């Protein structure tokens, strides 16, 4: 059905949060709705200001309410600030909903570590309900569930109320989820096997009866890859053996208390795994020694064949069988497994490692996950992807011992089957360019997927793009002379503007080289640090507002893809401009070569470079470019300090309607900026 526009179009949307749809919003609702109606998938490259959250919810709610079955909408986002936007949007929907139509029920769920003050890593239990009356707990939980569902609640409200009632906010939200229309949660609830298998069934949610909405979907491929990324070091292997020994001690204590057959079975398996891991320790040390010696003098990383790592475990199993004939597993076949088949060895070890429970010092932030889990996860990946070229193992000699890291080259192996299991999905982002690339990478069904690039509702004259044609951070052009040219353009923009500016670099190394020790006239520099906490980040916008009220100017200096360029909503027009230095291409590495080779085989040579290098780099720039324009009233000047942005390979990665103006010297930059800020005022 072709979208209707103009007067009366909004009457087609029963669950729209706004009285009047915004430009482009009507098209997004229609196209999303039609895709979902066919159990399909819609990719929306929707710029800031189009109202994509409201559009996606309007479409998803209509389809879920049409269904004869109970359908949950899972709104997935990696940003807690977006949780607030969703809850506020649902409140607006409910305020406009027709009489006789059920209000929308929503549960806002964040990570357990943010909802529970203390979690015992050995038992997996929190102390939120400590001292509460056990007898009335279930009645109170029912009542609290009703409180959560009767009106859209921000998660902070739920946490505070649960503290007063002596309830665990995390478990109460999970309990309420079965009766909600919308669950707002992290990507991991779908795309992490362990989280999904433990969370959805316990919340009464069936993946087959869900509509998935993915916010900031340009991040999804990397999030899936990160979920599969784990490291192996000799120390991790040693710690795993020690954790197994500790876990075995806990089991022996339990067995002496209750003589449980199940505990006896587990003891035998854990004992077997412990003996194997003692042998693995020396064999892993030998493997790392070989990998170190095989590196050339000018290299610090190399590819590791999957068989090199799996053979370590098979060799340990063979040696143990030769030493003991597996007598450690006992003689009673009814009680225990007496033989682990060769094909099942690594799976069995992985299963045992992922069940290990030990005492962990909760004050050590890096130690929240037992090393047994880390090793178990990587072994699980070896089993799942051993017959595929989608898993890559990379050895690096960095650190005291070196490390082997697992990398999933193809996130579509994970996402494709999960999306296919759901009733449909909307994937949206302001930088989902090109949508076809994300459809390919995430392995969405071609015959059921629609894709659209929506026009920005902001007038292009309120966000002009200026490209400096005399500078570049290309490796063979880097020099102090080039850095001085870049600095001159930044000073020129400072001189031509009146408010705060943000500058982003491809890496912390270049940030230090170009900006760290440099003085810029008329502004105070605030340089991003890797060590900044969430609390530090949360204070940035408030600080900018305070300094603006005092007529002081700030030059924020950060890195593409880091917190200042993606994790902050610069609302209220606090930035007058953004400077993007260079192009954040990934440095040459064993992993980047493996990615390009895999993409070439799967998507063709023409797409491989774009999918793995140029488009991800430009999308990082687009994310940074979008920081200052958060509403239709904002205005900002964008300056790209790298002439390569005009080269065909990179220019085609930008939205087709983006016009680029050129500057070849700082004087032109200043005059362009002065003219823009004189002509275009904040509304």
The residue fraction in helices comes out at 40-55%
Strand line-up of the largest beta sheet: 3-4-2-5-10-1-11
Beta strand %: 5-15%
- The rounded Rg comes to 28 Å
Largest β sheet strand count, sense and barrel closure: 7 strands, parallel
Task: Compute the separation of the termini in Å.
Answer: 37 Å
Report the uncertain regions.
Answer: 1-8, 328-338, 362-367
Q: Under the CATH scheme, which class of the largest domain?
A: Alpha Beta
CATH architecture assignment of the largest domain: 3-Layer(aba) Sandwich
What class, by secondary structure content? Answer: alpha/beta
Name the CATH superfamily classification of the largest domain.
Answer: P-loop containing nucleotide triphosphate hydrolases
**Total separate domains:** 4
Number of strands: 18
Q: Please, how many helices?
A: 26
The shape, in one word, is: globular
| Average pLDDT number | 90
CATH-assigned fold name of the largest domain: Rossmann fold
Topology:
Layout: H1 25-37, E1 41-45, H2 52-66, E2 72-76, H3 80-96, E3 106-108, H4 112-115, H5 137-150, H6 155-165, H7 169-176, E4 182-185, H8 188-191, H9 193-199, E5 210-214, H10 220-227, E6 231-232, H11 234-258, H12 261-294, E7 301-304, H13 306-324, H14 345-353, H15 371-385, E8 391-396, E9 403-408, H16 412-421, E10 424-429, H17 435-441, E11 449-453, E12 465-468, H18 480-496, E13 500-505, H19 508-516, E14 524-527, H20 534-538, H21 540-549, E15 554-559, H22 563-566, E16 575-581, H23 590-603, H24 605-625, E17 637-641, H25 648-651, E18 660-663, H26 666-679
Parallel strand pairs: 1-10, 1-11, 2-4, 2-5, 3-4, 5-10, 12-17, 12-18, 13-15, 13-16, 14-15, 16-17
Antiparallel strand pairs: 6-9, 7-8, 8-9
């Amino acid at each position: 059905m072709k979208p209707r526009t103009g007067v009366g179009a909004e009457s087609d949307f029963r669950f729209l949060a706004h009285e009047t749809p915004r430009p482009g919003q009507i098209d997004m609702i229609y196209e999303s709705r039609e895709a979902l109606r066919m159990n399909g998938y819609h990719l929306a490259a929707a710029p800031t200001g189009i109202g994509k959250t409201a559009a996606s919810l309007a479409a998803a709610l209509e389809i879920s309410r049409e269904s004869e079955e109970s359908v949950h909408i899972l709104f997935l986002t990696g940003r807690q600030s977006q949780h607030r936007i969703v809850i506020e949007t649902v409140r607006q929907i409910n305020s406009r909903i027709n009489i006789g139509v059920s209000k929308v029920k929503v549960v806002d769920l964040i990570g357990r570590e943010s909802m529970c003050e203390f979690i015992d890593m050995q038992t997996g239990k929190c102390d939120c309900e400590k001292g509460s009356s056990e007898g009335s707990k279930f009645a109170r939980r029912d009542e609290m569930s009703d409180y959560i569902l009767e009106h859209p609640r921000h998660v902070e409200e739920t946490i505070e109320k649960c503290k007063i009632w002596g309830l665990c906010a995390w478990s109460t939200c999970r309990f309420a989820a079965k009766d909600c229309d919308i669950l707002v949660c992290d990507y991991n609830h779908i795309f992490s096997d362990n989280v999904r298998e433990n969370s959805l069934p316990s919340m009464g949610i069936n993946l087959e009866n869900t509509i998935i909405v993915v916010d900031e979907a340009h991040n999804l491929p990397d999030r899936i890859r990160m979920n599969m990324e784990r490291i192996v070091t000799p120390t991790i292997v040693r710690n795993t053996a020690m954790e197994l020994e500790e876990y075995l001690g806990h089991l022996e204590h339990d067995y002496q208390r209750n003589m449980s057959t199940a505990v006896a079975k587990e003891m035998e398996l854990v004992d077997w795994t412990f003996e194997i891991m003692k042998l693995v320790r020396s064999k892993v040390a030998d493997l790392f020694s070989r990998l170190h010696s095989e590196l050339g003098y000018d290299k610090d990383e190399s590819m590791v064949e999957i068989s090199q790592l799996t053979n370590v475990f098979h060799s340990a199993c063979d040696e143990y069988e030769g030493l003991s004939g597996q007598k450690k597993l006992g003689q009673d076949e009814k009680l225990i497994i007496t033989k682990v088949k060769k094909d099942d060895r690594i799976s069995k070890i992985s299963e045992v490692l992922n069940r290990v429970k030990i005492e962990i010092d909760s004050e050590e932030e890096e130690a929240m996950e037992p090393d047994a889990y880390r090793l178990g996860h990587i072994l699980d990946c070896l089993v799942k992807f051993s017959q595929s070229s989608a898993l890559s193992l990379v050895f690096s000699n960095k650190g005291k011992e070196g490390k082997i890291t697992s990398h999933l080259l193809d996130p579509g192996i994970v996402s494709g089957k999960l999306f296919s299991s759901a009733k449909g999905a909307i994937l949206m982002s302001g930088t989902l360019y090109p949508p076809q690339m994300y459809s390919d990478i995430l392995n969405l069904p071609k015959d059921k997927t629609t894709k659209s690039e929506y026009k920005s509702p902001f007038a292009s004259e309120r966000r002009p793009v200026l490209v400096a044609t005399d500078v570049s951070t290309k490796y063979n052009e880097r020099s102090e002379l080039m850095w001085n040219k870049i600095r001159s353009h930044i000073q020129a923009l400072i001189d031509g503007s009146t408010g705060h500016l943000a500058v982003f670099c491809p890496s912390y190394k270049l940030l230090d080289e170009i900006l760290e020790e440099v003085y810029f006239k008329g502004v105070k520099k605030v340089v991003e640090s890797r060590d900044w906490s969430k609390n530090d980040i949360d204070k940035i916008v408030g600080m900018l507002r305070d300094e603006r009220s005092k007529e002081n100017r700030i030059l924020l200096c950060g890195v593409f893809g880091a917190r200042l360029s993606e994790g902050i909503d610069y609302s209220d027009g606090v930035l007058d401009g953004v400077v993007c230095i260079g192009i954040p291409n990934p440095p040459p590495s064993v992993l980047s070569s493996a990615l390009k080779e895999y993409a070439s085989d799967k998507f063709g040579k023409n797409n491989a470079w774009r999918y793995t290098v140029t488009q991800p780099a430009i999308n990082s720039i687009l994310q940074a470019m979008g920081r200052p324009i958060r509403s239709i009233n904002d205005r900002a000047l964008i300056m790209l300090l790298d002439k390569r942005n005009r080269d065909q390979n990179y220019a085609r990665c930008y939205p087709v309607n983006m016009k680029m103006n050129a500057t070849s010297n700082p004087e032109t930059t200043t005059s362009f900026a002065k003219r823009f800020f004189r002509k275009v005022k904040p509304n």
